[in-house]
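# step 3/5: fold
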Amino acid sequence: MEGQPTKNPKVLRAKNFVVEENIDAIRWPQECSGCGGTVERTENIKLSKRYKTFGLITVDVAGIPYCQSCFKRSRAADRLDNVITVLTLVFGIPLGILMLVGVIQGGTAEPNLFALAVVFVFALALVYGLLWLLVKRPIRFFFKDRFADPFSAWMIEAKKSDGREGLSLVIAIPLKPYADKFAILNGVAA
């Protein structure tokens, strides 16, 4: 409708951007978010979260601009993260089971469920840390031009700046110059 003002999003900036209201009104600078080049494609991030009595809330963060090269590099970084997660489960679960068996057989007292859970989580964390140090860091270092940090977004339950409770969208923009342009375009105070 002509003459009807569009509401601007209410965006705050800390380490990441927190969108408190009007998520659909977010505007993206029309340049590649990875290199500043020409936009050749866009990406959407679909998020869902259950919130109190409202049920499942779904948000679509639409129109994140990329050139073709940066889009491929961003997807490659996502795939690498997924590979690390899968390898953590593949190697961490058997290690956790072996550690649990060792604790049960080696202990003189009956271990409680909490202690067993701590041992299992420790095994998963150990494997993830080793894979991160021995696989992810070297791969990203030696093949740095094949990976780009992707955008990430998630929803949080938080008290908003006006004191109300509700869901807010958090957007992490890895490239600082692009984040600064995003802030200016969406009216975020410095």
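# step 4/5: annotate
The mean pLDDT is 84.
# step 5/5: archive (pending)
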